[in-house]
């Protein structure tokens, strides 16, 4: 199969927009459109119809190609986008009889869209992925262009190709539409790639133009370079989740209803309130399947309550460990700072001294030893002669020798 793309569709674009503001009411209409048209997943599969209408093509997990039409109102105030599945008739909890998307709560009203703090690309990515994982039922394609695209996808998944989408195919949209969009160039091999693992479909032959008098809900964009598809790993993850759900089987018959008289059945049909009336013998709570569901509900509630209590108890332990880790991190930071300071001092002490500094220090030390020897001689000459000559000479020569040694070192260094 093909890949939906990264785990975070359009992450880079949304991050840059989210840093501007934490409230979608501050987004302009142009920022919403920009997030949509620059999204790395949506961009290759999206085409502009006009300044306020765009189409995005994607493929569901059962192989059907769908077109999501997004209308962005041009009003001054930020309005929720209007979305429709075009070119089909189908049944789905998220769409009404006119194929309008009504099940996504964040776009039900303008206020809910503003309060959701979502940019347009996030909304479209969520809706597309929901339809990919939960395809519409009883789907009938009513548009010729979409039918050609579906036939191309079915052909590409045939046994002759070895794997789904391995070869080139025609998507049926590389043609001029009634909106005046021009054709795009394509290669016959169809082996283009976008993003990490998305498959690009390119047309081999141009398709006939969409009729100009076609009803507005079924006018499709002229061409796409990529169809958003669902990765095998996402399908496997959804399947594993459904398989592991411990749900009771739906009953095929109800014994209590089978044993009822015709008059009793008519009574229930004429007054459905009897099904929820606690005093009625027809109350649903008397049904064995309902009692079984209530027992399961009670079991799950008690299990969830016990797990919640365990989590609350564990929260205290985790909080203590968290505080301890924070203290250790703070202590470690202080110790690392101390080590870094000592290392800097060590480097200052161990690094070679510059020549000019050595000469300055030698010059000062030579002058100091010279002055000390001169002071010894001056004191001895002006003294009453307490020191013997040999004692004076020994002390004087010791200090004077130091002076000459330092002077010799300076001459050697100057010669280098």
List keywords for this structure.
416 residues; four-stranded antiparallel beta sheet; alpha+beta; 11 helices
How would you describe what is shown here?
With 416 residues, this protein is an alpha+beta fold. Helices cover 46% and strands 9% of the residues. The chain is built from eleven helices and eight strands. A four-stranded antiparallel sheet has the order 1-2-3-4, with helices on one face. Strand 7 and strand 8 form a beta hairpin. Helix 10 packs antiparallel against helix 11. The two termini are 76 Å apart. The N terminus is likely disordered.
Strands across the major sheet, in which order? 1-2-3-4
Indicate the mean pLDDT. Answer: 76
The profile of the biggest β sheet is: 4 strands, antiparallel
Tell me the strand percentage band.
5-15%
The number of helical elements comes to 11
Question: What series of H and E elements makes up the topology?
Answer: HHEEEEEHHEHEEHHHHHH
Query: What's the alpha carbon Rg, rounded to whole Å?
Result: 42 Å
Low-confidence stretches: 1-24, 160-220
The termini sit apart by 76 Å
Helicity range of the residues?
40-55%
User: Shape, please?
Assistant: elongated
Class from helix and strand fractions: alpha+beta
Number of strands: 8
